[in-house]
Amino acid sequence: MSTATEKNNYKVFIDDRLIAIRQATNSGNTVTIIPSNKEDLLNVTDENRFFVAVSNIQDIDGNIINYREPKRYNQFREFFTQKILGPNEAFELNDESILLDSIPLDRIKPMFREERMEDYWKNTPFLKNGSLEN
Length: 134
Fold this sequence. Notes:
Elements: E1 10-14, E2 17-19, E3 21-27, E4 30-35, H1 39-42, E5 50-54, E6 127-128, E7 131-132
């Protein structure tokens, strides 16, 4: 339920003087604030400072307007590798072994020799009868 018509959510000031509110009504996206004493508004001119403080307004879903609850998200990251080394295998890290983020992955040359290209694929192959299909 929307709280836009609850008069306690509004404070109206004219020249730093708090004006009592009798009622707040809404029509569509507009809220009309009706003062308790109409004479408070009769002497308003361009010279006066008019200020309305709005707080704790909730939409029909119960969300407070202009307030966002901080949320923490875990993001999934993909790991690209040509080969996962066994416990007794070693790989020397050098400048050529780092992937550059300025080059698309399909244009990066493999780090291993081309005669072993049948060991690698760009996309995961489909499973057929429980085995990998090349």
